[in-house]
Amino acid sequence: ECHVQNTAREYAKIYAAEAEPLEGFGEVPEIIPIFLVHRPANNIPYATVEEELVGEFVKYSVRDGKEVNFLRRDSEAGQKCCTFQHWVYEKTNGSLLVTDLQGVGMKLTDVGIATLAKGYKGFKGNCSISFIEQFRALHQCNKYCEMLGLKSLRTTHQKQRKATSMKSKNLPNSSIVKKTVPKKAREPRDFISSEH
């Protein structure tokens, strides 16, 4: 728990250094530190300690991506958390994602990290790789993503899906059933992703 949160905290510091100087960006989310304390006289000899957050506790993102949270999408803190996720994803070439962002205002705690199966630079997260795939498919850029010059994931995701579908059409002994369509009915179509 300490290792994950403090690793995410280091990414948040680098993100803040890039975002804060940008005109109009404003305050940046901070992941608070968490400490491991040894208590030898106690029945449970180890405990974690962190700053108490006072105020409305909000989940800006969740590990499984299934919860729809309007505070995440519509609030400044929520948008900046989504931008932070996008920034980390881009900086690590899609190998690591900070997720489960929650807290009070811009102070966050109890975060999770998803990495590719082999990890990222020796670090393995505590969340499934599926969270990275869900993020890539569901993330909607906002004005803070644009301010940081982050690349849209929609375009990348669409290209990957097109490439995958083209590969499966070209495979010998493919289990895909081809339908014959009269020549008149054939028209080129652009791939359109559905918004979630």
TrEMBL record:
SMART domains: Alpha_kinase
GO MF, any single term: ATP binding
Domain of life: Eukaryota
Subcellular location field: Basolateral cell membrane
Keywords (A to Z) from UniProt: Cell membrane, Disulfide bond, Immunoglobulin domain, Kinase, Membrane, Repeat, Serine/threonine-protein kinase, Transferase
Catalyzed reaction equations: L-threonyl-[protein] + ATP = O-phospho-L-threonyl-[protein] + ADP + H(+); L-seryl-[protein] + ATP = O-phospho-L-seryl-[protein] + ADP + H(+)
Compositional bias per record (Polar residues), positions renumbered to this chain: 165-177
Root EC class: transferase
GO CC aspect terms: basolateral plasma membrane
Catalytic activity, EC: 2.7.11.1
SUPFAM superfamilies assigned to the protein according to its UniProt record, in alphabetical order: Protein kinase-like (PK-like) (SSF56112)
InterPro entries: a-kinase_dom, Kinase-like_dom_sf
Domain Alpha-type protein kinase per the UniProt entry, residue ranges: 1-153
Signal peptide: none
Function: Protein kinase that recognizes phosphorylation sites in which the surrounding peptides have an alpha-helical conformation. Regulates cardiac development and cardiomyocyte differentiation by negatively regulating Wnt/beta-catenin signaling.
Protein name, UniProt field: Alpha-protein kinase 2
Organism: Mesembrinibis cayennensis
Lineage: Eukaryota, Metazoa, Chordata, Craniata, Vertebrata
